[in-house]
């Protein structure tokens, strides 16, 4: 028998949204909860994300007149996923649990003080399918003043942009020169900056705001959180998980968990060796926009206990470029979704809907062998829209001097600079320009669904996402399939229990987030399509430990 240094009721490995949500639920029931975070900061990759949560039939929809239901959510996911090819995480039982528990989880957190807001217009990523919702199932949170956390404010992981905006405001802010709504948002943004400068407000947005708000609730509930305390081993006795070995202050400590251990430790996005084995198209350089702790060792610990895995070859792909002087790649989905831009491979041909689901785009890019691809950018796009976080009309000289961005007066010269087949590019642009003038993309449907419109320019006609490429100068940027996380891991059942290869649960071991094979399989259903399930199955794990969701 193991000799224990400490005993609690529940341990969570990692401090992502699902772990904190589970901790709040368990504390409400009087349980002693210990969150072990290996890095120095709390919040996981959720804290540096857009902070959007996808939950069908959530409680903010009906008051806004949005028609949704369990049945519509199920119809959508059934149409989206092509079972059994979606994998072991996307079982009908898990889908059912996600759809039934998601609305209750959101209502619970709202009652606890988490200020969710609807992302009106940020549609499901395949809203044209049966059950799809164009007006949005996605939720953001209001901008948050991290001073409310007191001493814990310095422990909250911050998003790299540092922008005090909600997840749904970013799109409109980028269009501040193109729309009245964007202009007004820019004025509110400036006021927030003034509050920060002159009143000392510590305003944070997007994923930092989401995790800040949930962290505040968790701390008030009495959830204990230890940073810089990595878990080194998950301990099982007689087939049941009973605790962990962690490293506290450089020394091993054995912590017993009476009721269970919940994994919410992220995937393996920064494990370059494993990434190269699972995703051989990737370069040696790390193109992932996840938190530094996303390295996969907790998945390995579960595998040693017999856990099954699935969909390890999947990632939440997000088209990215790497401007000079940046420490991390720039995510370009929003930029390349706007008019007067297309993506081509070295053959000069398009291969996907540039404004569709970013995960789907990455899958299509890999399948087409277009790694890397090139974003062809017309002069009007540079005049009107952001690129790589830089405002319209501004092209930093180092972009051109370093070769990051190519520039030419003709498409033929641009193709030569990029190593693109000039005849293939010319034919593609000619065909695309006809589509743009007509307002219908007959090849890939760009601009035909809600996401394309949301990510486009609503002032541009006849299609918010399509604009011809004909006015020089022309620009091009190399695009790689970056990501915001891997999308496969241990197999968990509808109760969030980790499963063995023979389909039996490992008693005492639960998992949520991207360390699991996702409930939406190989598809990303909508904005917040990983954060939503992470919160829900953290909630489910806690309820199951408490006997409130019986087998």
Structure description:
- The protein has 16 helices and 21 strands.
- By secondary structure, the chain is of the alpha+beta class.
- It folds into 3 domains: 47-214, FAD/NAD(P)-binding domain, CATH 3.50.50; 224-316 and 485-545, FAD/NAD(P)-binding domain (3-Layer(bba) Sandwich), CATH 3.50.50.60; 317-483, Succinate dehydrogenase/fumarate reductase flavoprotein, catalytic domain (Flavocytochrome C3, Chain A, domain 1, Alpha-Beta Complex), CATH 3.90.700.10.
- The strands form 5 sheets. Strands 1, 2, 8, 9, 10, 11, 20 and 21 form an 8-stranded mixed sheet that branches. Strands 13, 14, 15, 16, 17 and 18 form a 6-stranded antiparallel sheet that branches.
- Strand 20 and strand 21 (505-511) form a beta hairpin.
- Helix 1 (17-28) runs parallel beside helix 6, helix 3 crosses helix 16 and helix 13 (411-418) packs across helix 14 (422-438).
- The longest helix is centred in the first third of the chain and has 20 residues, at 92-111.
What is the element layout, followed by pairings?
Layout: E1 6-13, H1 17-28, E2 33-36, E3 53-54, H2 70-80, H3 92-111, E4 116-118, E5 138-141, E6 144-145, H4 169-174, H5 180-199, E7 203-204, H6 206-221, E8 224-226, E9 231-237, E10 240-248, E11 251-263, H7 272-278, H8 297-304, E12 309-310, E13 315-321, E14 330-331, H9 333-336, E15 341-344, H10 358-367, E16 373-378, H11 379-384, H12 397-402, E17 405-408, H13 411-418, H14 422-438, H15 450-455, E18 474-486, E19 489-490, E20 497-499, E21 505-511, H16 531-545
Parallel strand pairs: 1-2, 1-11, 2-8, 11-21
Antiparallel strand pairs: 3-5, 4-5, 6-7, 9-10, 10-11, 12-19, 13-14, 13-18, 15-16, 16-18, 17-18, 20-21
Helix pairs in contact: 1-6, 1-16, 2-3, 3-16, 13-14
């Amino acid at each position: 028998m193991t000799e224990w240094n400490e005993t609690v009721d529940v341990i969570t490995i990692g401090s992502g949204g699902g772990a904190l949500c589970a901790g709040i639920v368990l504390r409400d029931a009087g349980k002693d909860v210990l969150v072990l975070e290996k890095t120095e900061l709390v919040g996981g990759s959720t804290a540096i994300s857009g902070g959007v949560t996808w939950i069908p039939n959530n409680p903010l929809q009906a008051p806004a007149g949005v028609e949704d239901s369990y049945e519509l959510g199920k119809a959508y996911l059934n149409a989206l996923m092509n079972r059994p090819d979606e994998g072991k995480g996307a079982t009908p039982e898990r889908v059912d649990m996600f759809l039934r528990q998601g609305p209750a989880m959101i209502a619970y957190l709202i009652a606890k003080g988490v200020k969710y807001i609807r992302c009106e217009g940020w549609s499901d990523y395949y809203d044209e399918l049966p059950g799809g919702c164009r007006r949005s199932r996605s939720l953001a949170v209001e901008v948050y003043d991290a001073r409310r956390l007191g001493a814990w404010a310095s422990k909250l992981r911050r998003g790299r942009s540092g922008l005090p905006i909600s997840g749904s405001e970013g799109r409109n802010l980028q269009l501040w020169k193109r729309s009245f709504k964007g202009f007004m948002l820019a004025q509110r943004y400036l006021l927030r900056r003034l509050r920060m400068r002159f009143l000392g407000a510590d305003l944070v947005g997007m994923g930092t705001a989401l995790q800040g708000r949930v962290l505040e609730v968790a701390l008030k509930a009495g959830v204990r959180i230890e940073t810089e305390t990595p878990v080194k081993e998950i301990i099982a006795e007689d087939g049941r998980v009973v605790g962990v070995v962690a490293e506290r202050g450089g020394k091993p400590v054995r912590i017993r968990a009476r009721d269970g251990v919940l994994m919410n430790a992220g995937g393996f996005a920064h494990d370059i060796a494993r990434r190269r084995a699972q995703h051989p198209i990737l370069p040696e350089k790390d193109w992932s926009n996840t938190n530094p702790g996303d390295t996969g060792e907790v998945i390995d610990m579960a595998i040693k206990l017999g856990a099954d895995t699935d969909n390890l070859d999947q990632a939440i792909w997000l088209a990215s470029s790497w401007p000079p002087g940046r420490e991390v790649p720039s995510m370009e989905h929003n930029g390349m979704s706007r008019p007067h831009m297309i993506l081509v491979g070295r053959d000069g041909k398009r291969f996907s809907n540039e404004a569709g689901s970013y995960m789907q785009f990455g899958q299509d890019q890999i399948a087409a062998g277009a790694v890397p691809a090139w974003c062809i950018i017309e002069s009007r796009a540079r005049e009107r829209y952001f690129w790589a976080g830089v405002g319209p009309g501004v092209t930093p000289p180092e972009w051109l001097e370093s070769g990051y961005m190519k520039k030419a007066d003709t498409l033929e010269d641009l193709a030569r600079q990029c190593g693109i087949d000039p005849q293939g590019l010319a034919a593609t642009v000619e065909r695309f320009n006809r589509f743009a003038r007509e307002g219908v993309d007959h090849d890939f449907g760009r601009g035909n669904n809600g996401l394309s419109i949301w990510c486009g320019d609503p002032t541009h006609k006849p299609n918010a996402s399509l604009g011809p490429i004909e006015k020089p100068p022309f620009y091009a940027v190399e695009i790689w399939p970056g990501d915001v996380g891997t999308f496969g891991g241990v197999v968990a059942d509808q109760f969030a229990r980790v499963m063995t290869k023979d389909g039996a649960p490992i008693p005492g071991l639960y998992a949520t987030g991207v360390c699991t094979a996702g409930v939406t399989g190989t598809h990303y259903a909508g904005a917040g399509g990983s954060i939503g399930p992470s919160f829900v199955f953290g909630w489910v794990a806690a309820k199951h430990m408490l006997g409130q969701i019986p087998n």
